[in-house]
Amino acid sequence: MSQPTTLPPQFAALAPYLSWALPTTTERMRERLSRSREEVMAFHAATAPHIDSIVEYLNQYPLEEIPAEAQGLFDLMMAIGETAIYAEWLEGAGEPPIAPGMGKRIQMLWEPVAR
Question: What's the pTM value of the predicted model, to 2 decimals?
């Protein structure tokens, strides 16, 4: 699956953040880990206020029937959710103190398995 390049028109203001709209948890985690604290906090600050309207829009579709034109918005919403704990709970300070290095271990666990 390729990375989306558009959003539904009412979410055009979020287009600068499409680079975060990746299709897998592993890709989104890698994106977050590759960004500075400031970039993650800025992403969260810019996108979090749109959560309610994004959820309302996406809720009109069953999960397995999200149309192609809304897939980027769905992936972006996943990125917002996956960065929220980092931005809100940890305030961008890094990994939870009880689990140093956990992000790297989780990243390895999510690597695709050759079949």
Answer: 0.76
